[in-house]
Write a structure and sequence with these properties.
About 45% of the residues lie in helices and about 15% in strands. It is α/β, with parallel strands linked by helices and about 300 residues long. The protein has a single domain, classed as Alpha/Beta hydrolase fold, catalytic domain (Rossmann fold, 3-Layer(aba) Sandwich), CATH 3.40.50.1820.
Length: about 300
């Protein structure tokens, strides 16, 4: 799908944000509010659209910046690109520089959590473009060996079944939203309009065909576990995990395992929410972010 075929709600979403050039890649941003910066990193296979409700509740006090990763949402989706989390993190740093952000609170979900830990690793090495003031991690399978990945993710993660996964991506259709709802405890949080917008954002510039390449992040989590989990243990900035207890993918064992890896972190479990807790209950997620940042 190209932008000329967007529905009215998706055009409105496009107009609500803007694009910036980041290292030669066109990156979409949703930005609201003023004050200290809060950088919000979305998950797979969605976009910054996930953060709307949370941002609505934070924008009166914070400058909320939610970019789409390369290959997601309304950002550029090149065919000749590795989609490594290292490249994604390079882009995040470039975006921060372009926006004049010298320090930020960082909040992440799903695959965004691993880009977040790479930021922390770079900060420990003294080679990051901005200072991380605090870190809030929502459900994400950073302990990939403990997570329970979906059948679709299993297809993409295994070389033998990858062709089958690629075929599904070519004709993903209504199954896309069904898949998102399957890992929620409150699937009713997605309106018909949300479903339309999210489907169009996914398929923009053939984003559905990029999913197999993007999914390589699961392998990276195994390969770079020591670096990324080590960064959680060693980071000097305040750290918290806010974990939905009904997530069938980044399950409670992942959250509790991370709390053991980083015992200095604040750890909170939220009852009755699933993997997309930021969509399912943006009010409670925003409250935990706000209280952690302010200490109130």
């Amino acid at each position: 799908m190209d932008g000329s075929k967007f529905s009215a709600p998706t055009r409105a979403w496009l107009q609500s944000g803007r694009h910036v050039d980041a290292g030669g890649k066109r990156i979409f941003l949703y930005e609201r509010g003023a004050g200290p910066a809060v950088l919000l990193l979305h998950g797979f296979p969605t976009s910054s659209y996930d953060w709307r409700g949370v941002i609505d509740r934070l924008k009166d006090r914070w400058r909320c910046v939610a970019p789409d990763f390369i290959g997601y949402g309304l950002s550029e989706k090149p065919a000749a690109f590795s989609y490594s989390l290292f490249q994604q993190t390079d882009t995040l740093e470039t975006v921060a520089v372009e926006l004049g952000i010298s320090e930020a609170h960082v909040v992440s979900h799903d695959v965004g959590t691993s880009a977040h830990t790479e930021l922390l690793a770079r900060e420990l090495e003294g080679r990051i473009a901005f200072r991380v003031l605090s870190s809030t991690f929502l459900n994400g399978s950073m302990l990939q060996d403990v997570a329970t990945i979906t059948p679709f993710q299993k297809l993409l993660a295994n070389n033998e079944t990858l062709p089958q996964g690629m075929a599904i991506c070519e004709n993903i259709g209504p199954g896309y939203i069904d898949g998102l709802k399957a890992v929620m405890k409150k699937p009713e949080c997605l309106s018909d309009e949300d479903a339309l917008v999210m489907t169009e954002l996914m398929s923009y510039q053939e984003g559905n065909l990029r999913m197999p390449a993007i999914s390589g992040y699961m392998r990276e989590r195994y390969l770079h576990k020591q670096r990324w989990i080590g960064a959680l243990r060693e980071t000097k900035a305040p750290l918290q995990f806010v974990w939905a207890d009904g997530d069938p993918v980044a399950n409670l064992a992942v959250g509790r395992g991370l709390a053991k890896e980083a015992p200095q972190a604040k750890y909170t479990e939220l009852s009755g929410l699933g993997h997309f807790l930021l969509l399912e209950d943006p009010e409670i997620v925003a409250r935990h972010i706000h209280e952690f940042i302010t200490g109130v």
